[in-house]
Amino acid sequence: MLSDLTRTERLRLVKFVCSFAWADLEINDAERDFVHDLIRRLDLDLDEDETMDVEGWLTFPPPPEEVDPMDIPVAHRQVFLDTMLALVASDGELAEAETESFNLLSQLVR
After folding, report:
1. Which of 21, 35, 39, 57 could be 31's S-S partner, Cβ–Cβ 3.0 to 4.6 Å?
2. Helix (H) or strand (E) run with residue 40 in it
3. Which residue from 49, 56, 5, 7 is spatially nearest to 35, judged by alpha carbons?
4. What is the SS3 assignment for 103?
5. CATH class name, domain 2-109
6. Is this model's pTM higher than 0.85 or not?
7. Burial class (CB in 10 A: 0-12, 13-18, 19+), 46
């Protein structure tokens, strides 16, 4: 459940979502809107630096070494997977790269 995440874990989730949105090498408006809505649902009051980080992740993907699936706490892995699945569904299109990325993430964290 999203409310069980600490502030640090919530920011990590946003970073993972941004990274995952880049699976098909572009971020569309629906995905961008999903990220901004997620921040609201997480009740994250981002400071200026955090806002710049998120906007940066929506412009260029976070470096792979900063989004290691093994860094996701075991207790929260299902929340991360559910959120990634919601992101994929957000634009109404299922790109092959998104499916492959989701399947890989799912295998890595289970």
Report:
1. 21
2. helix 29-41
3. 56
4. helix
5. mainly alpha
6. yes
7. middle
